[in-house]
C-alpha cells in the first residue's frame, strides 16, 4: 500500500522566512558536509561537492568530516548567500538530482566511493522522493475482508513491537500487542537508571519514516527516547491496540485449523486465551535482568537493585554505593552518580574496551532542528552521515586475518590498530597511575566484547579519590556490604547490580508449543537458532523480531534491523492472507540449517569467539555465540526484503 510520491517530498523543507542573522546563527550548529549536500538540492548546482572544499574522511560521530575551521566558515558563508537567494526567490526547488548525482553526493560525504551494491539500501534510508519503500504492497488476493479475518498477536510493546503495530495497522490487519509493562518503550521504559542514554546517534536511532527534529542531545537520554516511542504509538494509533500490564504465558499452535491460541495473564492474575492467525514475538533480548547467585546476596541490610529495576525516588546523596559490573549500564551510571556520593566502589570482572567519542554528552544546537525543518533534505543527509560509518566498515577490524602473526594480541592489522588507539586514549586519561591503567586496559583482544564509547567521563570517575575500582572477585554479600576474595569488606549502603540480562534465553519464560507438540525452549536448548533470526522450523506463522543471531555488535542500529525484519514478516503475512483462511507458512529445516551452518562458520572467523575472551554475555554456557549477527548490513537487508519461496512450506486449507 505504498502511497504515490507527493509533488514535493516531505523532506524538501518548509519555506524559509527567517532573517539573515537567524539563518547565519543556525548554520553554526550544522554538519558542514551535510549542509553542502543540502545545497546541491537547493541550488541544483553540483559544484558544491566538486570543488576543493570537501570532507577529508569519515569516522564514527565525526560530523564535520575533519574539515578545517576555516573551510567550514567558508562553506557557511557561501551557504548563507545561497539560502538568502532561495528565500527571496520564493523557496522554489530546482529539479531533483538524478541517481548518479545522488551517488556522487554519497561518496563526497564519506570521502570514498560508495559501492553500487549499497545504493538500494541507502536510497531507502534517504527517502529523497518522500516514499516509504519499506511499506509493503499487498497483493490483490489479500482483500480487505481477508485481512480483517487474520488477527495477529504481537508480544511486546517496545521499539520493534510498536513498529510491527504501525505496519499491521497501515495494512488493515487486526492486531493486539501484549505488553508486560504499564507503558510502551520496552528497554527505554525499563532502564531508568541515572545516566541512561542511547549509544547510536539519535538522528539515525529513530524510525526511517518517522524522523524527529526535536532531539536535545546527539545521544538522547532515556526520557526523550521513551517520549519518542510513546509519541509514535499515539500518532499511529498503536496505543489503543495494547494490553498493558499483561504477559503471554503460553502460545500453542493448532495444526487442524491453522491458528495459535495465546494465553495472556493480566495484572490481577486472571488469564484469557486470544485467537491468532499469526504471532510476532517482539520481546527483545535484554529484558530479563540477571543477578549473580552470590552467597549471602539476600542478607544485605541496605537497598539492592538491578540497573534495569531502578527504584524510583532513590536518593543517593551522601551514600556509600557499590556498582557491580563495568558493562554498558555501569559505564553510564558510575560517572553520573559519583559526584554526589560519599564513596563509590566499582566491582569489575573484566575491563571494557572503549573508544573516544567527545560528542557523547553533547547538546544539539537550535540550528539543527531549524535546518531539518527548512533546508532541503538536510535531515536525510545528516542521517546518512551517521549511518555510513556505522554500517559495514567496522567488520574489517572484527574479522580474523589468519595471516596476522600475533593472534594472541590481535586478529588483524586493523584490529591491532584499534587496540593501539583505544589503549592510548585510556593511558592519556589515567596519567601516571600505572596500577589503575593495568586494571582498565582489557586482557582480551580488542572489540571482542561490547565496545563502549567514552567522552572521558568513565575514567574521569575512576580517577576520583572517592571512587575505588575492585578487580578481586566477590566472595559474598553480608548485611554491611560486599566481601571480596581477599577477605576485604567494602561497607556500602546501596548495591547496584549492573550485571546484564538472560540474553541467551529467547522468548523466556513463555512456553511456545508448535507443530506436533514441539516446545520451542526444548528445541532450542542453549543454542537458539532461526532463519535470519525470524522463523523456526516446526513453528508455523510464528515470527521473531530481534531473534537469535540478530544482535548488532559491529554497527548499524537495532531500529534498522527491526525495519528489515518487520518488512520480511509483513511480506510473509501478505502471502498467508492471500493463500486463504487457515494457511500456514513454515521455514524448511534445510533452509534453516543451511543458514545457521553458514552463520556459525562465519562466527568462527569473528573476534567474538576469540579464546582470550573468558566472560561475555554474547556466549552461552558452552562458549558458543548464537546472539550476534556476523553479517554485513547490506547482505541482511538484501536477504530480508522478502521471503524466498524456496525457504518455506506453504500449506493451504
From TrEMBL:
SUPFAM superfamilies: FAD/NAD(P)-binding domain. It comes from the Bacteria. Pfam families: Pyr_redox_3. PANTHER family: FAD_NAD(P)-BINDING DOMAIN-CONTAINING PROTEIN-RELATED (PTHR42877:SF4), L-ORNITHINE N(5)-MONOOXYGENASE-RELATED (PTHR42877). This is NAD(P)/FAD-dependent oxidoreductase. It comes from Iamia majanohamensis.
Amino acid at each position: 500500500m505504498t502511497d504515490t510520491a507527493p509533488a514535493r517530498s516531505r523532506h524538501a523543507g518548509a519555506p524559509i522566512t527567517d532573517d539573515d542573522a537567524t539563518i547565519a546563527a543556525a548554520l553554526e550548529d550544522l554538519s558542514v558536509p551535510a549542509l553542502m549536500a543540502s545545497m546541491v538540492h537547493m541550488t541544483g548546482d553540483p559544484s558544491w561537492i566538486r570543488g576543493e572544499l570537501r570532507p577529508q574522511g569519515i569516522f564514527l560521530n565525526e560530523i564535520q568530516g575533519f574539515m578545517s575551521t576555516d573551510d567550514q566558515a567558508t562553506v557557511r558563508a557561501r551557504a548563507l548567500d545561497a539560502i538568502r537567494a532561495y528565500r527571496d526567490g520564493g523557496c522554489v526547488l530546482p529539479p531533483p538530482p538524478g541517481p548518479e548525482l545522488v551517488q556522487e553526493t554519497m561518496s563526497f560525504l564519506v570521502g570514498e566511493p560508495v559501492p553500487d551494491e549499497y545504493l538500494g539500501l541507502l536510497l531507502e534510508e534517504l527517502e529523497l522522493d518522500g516514499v516509504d519503500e519499506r511499506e509493503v504492497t499487498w497483493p490483490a488476493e489479500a482483500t480487505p475482508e481477508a485481512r480483517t479475518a487474520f488477527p495477529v498477536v504481537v508480544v511486546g510493546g517496545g521499539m520493534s513491537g510498536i513498529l510491527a503495530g504501525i505496519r499491521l495497522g497501515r495494512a488493515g490487519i487486526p492486531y493486539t500487542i501484549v505488553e508486560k509493562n504499564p507503558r510502551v518503550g520496552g528497554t527505554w521504559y525499563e532502564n531508568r537508571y541515572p545516566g541512561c542514554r542511547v549509544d547510536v546517534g539519535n538522528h539515525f536511532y529513530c524510525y526511517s519514516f518517522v524522523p524527529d527534529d526535536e532531539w536535545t542531545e546527539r545521544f538522547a537520554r532515556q526520557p526523550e527516547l521513551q517520549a519518542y516511542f510513546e509519541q509514535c504509538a499515539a500518532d499511529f494509533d498503536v496505543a489503543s491496540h495494547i494490553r498493558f500490564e499483561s504477559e503471554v504465558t503460553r502460545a500453542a499452535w493448532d495444526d487442524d485449523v491453522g491458528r495459535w491460541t495465546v494465553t495472556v495473564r493480566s495484572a490481577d492474575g486472571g488469564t484469557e486465551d486470544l485467537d491468532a492467525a499469526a504471532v510476532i514475538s517482539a520481546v527483545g533480548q535484554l529484558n530479563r535482568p540477571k543477578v549473580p547467585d552470590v552467597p549471602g546476596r539476600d542478607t544485605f541490610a541496605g537497598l539492592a537493585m538491578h540497573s534495569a529495576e531502578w527504584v524510583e525516588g532513590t536518593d543517593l546523596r551522601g551514600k556509600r554505593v557499590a556498582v557491580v559490573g563495568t558493562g554498558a549500564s555501569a559505564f553510564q551510571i558510575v560517572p553520573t552518580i559519583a559526584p554526589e556520593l560519599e564513596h563509590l566502589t566499582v566491582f569489575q570482572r573484566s575491563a571494557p574496551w572503549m573508544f573516544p567519542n567527545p560528542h557523547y554528552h553533547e547538546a544539539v544546537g537550535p540550528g539543527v532542528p531549524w535546518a531539518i525543518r527548512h533546508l532541503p533534505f538536510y535531515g536525510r543527509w545528516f542521517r546518512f552521515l551517521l549511518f555510513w560509518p556505522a554500517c559495514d566498515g567496522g567488520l574489517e577490524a572484527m574479522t580474523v586475518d589468519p595471516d596476522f602473526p600475533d593472534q594472541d594480541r590481535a586478529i588483524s592489522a586493523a584490529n591491532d590498530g584499534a587496540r593501539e588507539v583505544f589503549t592510548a586514549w585510556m593511558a592519556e586519561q589515567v596519567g601516571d597511575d600505572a596500577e589503575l591503567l593495568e586494571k582498565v586496559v582489557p586482557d582480551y583482544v580488542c572489540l571482542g566484547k561490547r565496545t563502549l564509547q567514552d567522552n572521558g567521563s568513565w575514567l574521569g570517575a575512576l580517577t576520583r579519590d572517592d571512587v575505588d575500582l575492585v578487580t578481586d572477585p566477590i566472595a559474598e554479600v553480608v548485611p554491611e556490604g560486599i566481601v571480596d576474595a581477599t577477605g576485604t569488606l567494602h561497607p556500602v549502603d546501596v548495591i547496584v547490580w549492573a550485571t546484564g540480562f538472560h540474553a541467551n534465553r529467547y522468548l523466556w519464560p513463555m512456553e511456545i508449543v508448535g507443530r506436533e507438540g514441539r516446545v520451542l525452549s526444548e528445541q532450542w536448548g542453549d543454542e537458539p537458532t532461526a532463519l535470519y533470526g525470524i522463523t523456526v522450523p516446526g513453528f508455523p506463522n510464528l515470527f521473531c523480531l530481534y531473534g537469535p543471531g540478530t544482535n548488532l555488535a559491529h554497527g548499524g542500529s537495532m531500529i534498522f534491523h527491526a525495519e528489515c525484519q518487520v518488512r520480511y514478516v509483513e511480506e510473509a503475512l501478505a502471502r498467508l492472507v492471500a493463500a486463504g483462511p487457515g494457511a500456514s507458512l513454515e521455514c524448511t529445516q534445510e533452509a534453516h540449517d543451511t543458514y545457521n551452518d553458514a552463520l556459525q562458520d562465519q562466527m568462527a572467523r569473528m573476534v567474538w569467539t576469540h579464546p582470550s575472551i573468558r566472560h561475555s554475555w554474547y556466549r552461552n554456557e558452552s562458549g558458543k555465540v548464537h546472539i550476534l549477527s556476523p553479517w554485513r548490513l547490506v547482505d541482511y537487508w538484501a536477504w530480508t526484503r522478502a521471503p524466498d519461496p524456496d525457504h518455506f512450506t506453504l500449506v493451504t486449507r
